[in-house]
From TrEMBL:
Transmembrane segments: 267-284, 296-317
A Gene Ontology molecular function term of the record: magnesium ion transmembrane transporter activity
Organism field: Amycolatopsis acidiphila
Domain of life, per lineage: Bacteria
Pfam family, any one: CorA
Family the entry assigns: Belongs to the CorA metal ion transporter (MIT) (TC 1.A.35) family.
Main location: membrane
Protein name (Swiss-Prot/TrEMBL): Magnesium transporter CorA family protein
Membrane topology: Multi-pass membrane protein
Taxonomy of the source species: Bacteria, Bacillati, Actinomycetota, Actinomycetes, Pseudonocardiales
């Protein structure tokens, strides 16, 4: 369902009116309108495209999926693409929802690719900061971007907590290595996906703040600067966590290799000790006469040789920490 709003001089005047009335509201220069569409086709965007003079390429980008986070500038408007993210706490899988926006002088048209993007949360932010509504489109756009960037912080914070829990398991005595490998893989995959949507947002927000665009006034400038700072922190945090996951994985493999070397060292030491009685009993088991053949003295000599040599090897390996 399409959502609409109209602000006159910073005051909410109308809501959920038919899209056909957009042109009537826009005739008044003191009015700012918002129009929201969910999973529209090019035909659905035809009316608003004619009303606002939207560029054909921008309309095509709004319909197609998997666009990169970006800000394209045209003669009469700008086109923005961003992604809201949400992390599954149990699996560590990151889900994203694309949101596009046509930004004109007095209108903001948002296009959601699916209903996974919570537009009601954005509306709630606008209502909680109604005193800024006099800034027009900049006010609406800030609420949208602020919600998106806050989602980055929530996701990266959750990823940080899960990575800390993963760190504690690295040196645990009993670890399910298969589960740990699966979790580390999911976390790294989520971090790569988060990085892919966070890094371009720095350029997007920075471009919106440029004076030649004429979108952000003095009132909204500090708020957009705050969003920009949050994007920088989220991107830096994401980069550090990605390196940390790689370090955890490498540490885990190193510990597994060291443990395997210790086990192999102990097995080799015991094999050397066991080889002594095997060699001696094998020698005395020959079907030929030898010193002590068929006599107690031979049995005693072989037994003493086994105990002395095996004991000497045990003491030697123990001192060298091979057992």
């Amino acid at each position: 369902m399409a959502r609409t709003r109209a602000y006159r001089n910073g005051v909410l005047e109308a809501e959920d009116f038919p899209p056909e009335e957009l042109s009537e509201y826009l005739r008044d220069t003191s009015v700012t309108v918002w129009y929201d569409l969910c999973a529209p086709t090019e035909q659905d965007l035809a009316v608003v495209s004619q009303e606002l003079g939207l560029h054909r390429l921008a309309v095509e980008d709004a319909v197609s999926e998997h666009q990169r986070s970006k800000l394209d500038r045209y003669d009469t408007h700008s086109f923005l693409t961003a992604y809201a993210v949400e992390l599954d706490q149990e699996s560590g899988v990151l889900a994203s929802a694309e949101i596009d926006a046509f930004v004109t002088e007095r209108a903001l048209v948002t296009v959601r690719k699916s209903d996974h993007f919570d537009i009601e949360a954005v509306v709630a932010r606008w209502d909680s900061a109604a005193e800024l509504a006099k800034s027009g489109v900049a006010f609406l756009l800030h609420g949208l971007l602020d919600y998106v960037v806050d989602g980055y912080f929530e996701s990266v914070q959750s990823l940080d907590d899960q990575i800390e829990a993963l760190e504690d398991l690295v040196f645990a005595d009993r670890v399910d290595h298969k589960d740990m490998q699966r979790r580390s893989l999911h976390l790294r995959k989520s971090l790569v996906k988060l990085r892919r949507v966070v890094l371009p947002m720095r350029e997007v927000v920075n471009s919106l703040m440029r004076h030649d665009l004429g979108l952000v006034d003095e009132t909204m400038a500090p708020y957009f600067q705050d969003v920009y700072d949050h994007v920088l922190r989220a991107s830096e945090w994401t980069e550090s966590l990605r390196d940390l996951v790689t370090t955890i994985r490498e540490t885990q493999l190193t510990i597994q290799g060291n443990r395997l070397n210790v086990i192999m060292k102990k097995l080799t030491g015991w094999a050397a000790i066991i080889a002594v009685p095997t060699a001696i009993t094998g020698f005395y088991g020959q079907n030929v006469p030898y010193p002590g053949y068929s006599q107690w003295s031979g049995f005693i000599a072989s037994t003493v040789a086994i105990v002395v040599i095996a004991g000497a090897l045990y003491v030697l390996f123990k001192r060298r920490d091979w057992l």
